[in-house]
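subagent[fold] <- orchestrator: predict structure for attached chain, return tokens only, no commentary.
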Amino acid sequence: MRTPMTVTAVLLSMLLAGCAGVPRHPASPPPAPLMPPASPAPTPAPLAPPASPAPTPAPPAPPASPVPTPEPGAAPDPSGITPEEAAAIPPLEPAGVNVEKDGDRVTVHWRGSGNASGRYEVYRRAGPTAPWTPAAKVAATGSDTDTYRWADPAPVVGAVYGVAAVSPYGVKSAIVSP
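subagent[fold] -> orchestrator:
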């Protein structure tokens, strides 16, 4: 007994067999070719005489970089970031900012951030919501974990003080106040 075949199976088997031996209706047009006939190759244009080469301009000079460039052949930075990216990272904030008031004298104390800040900037403002104004720049020293002090030569009554670390590239941390 034969297994009945579905119409889809018959069409698929005919397609795979290339429709060999399948009679066509006499009025039907012949099947279209699968690929269009190739068109004749165009006639190439006559070659023009070679033009004289234009002078090559000199390459532009590289831009000046505020970031030190590593020596050729130096070991790659283990952090995986470029010197430009490293220069944009702000330093850690100073810790333990404290203001000591003794009569007419005001002294600001803080601990260094320990990540080789270039300097610290002390700021003053007239009140809690007033804008910060620079009061002093204090150079970082040693391992940069020292305790720093700055005495205000012209203290302002009611002033609020803060300190920011500044990287050697001029990038500042947030201002920290007590």
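orchestrator: received. Logging for downstream: The chain is about 10% helix and 25% strand. The first helix runs from residue 7 to 17.
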